[in-house]
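This follows on from our talk about sequence and fold. Can you supply me with one protein entry, sequence and fold together? Could you add the entry underneath, on a fresh line?
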Amino acid sequence: MTAAERLAQCRDSSDSAQADCAPHIIGWKIGYEIFGTTCIPEEAGAEALREAFVRYAEAHPARSDEPDGDVLRDALFARWPC
């Protein structure tokens, strides 16, 4: 999925879109934690993670065709740098 596709999904307030958006982002967070490469606080919940991605993706429209995982990684590390 591209960053633009994931952004559209995460902007969509329907239950089905949010059921796909939040778990995807939480999964990335957990993956980074497994490898010890994140400074995302434990209390950062699904909404904070989703918001970090949406704000970053909206601020970097030139990256819309990139894989969503690449943009999500950069969004999370930009929001919570080590």
The radius of gyration is 12 Å. The mean pLDDT is 90. The helical segments are 3-11, 15-34, 46-59, 68-79.
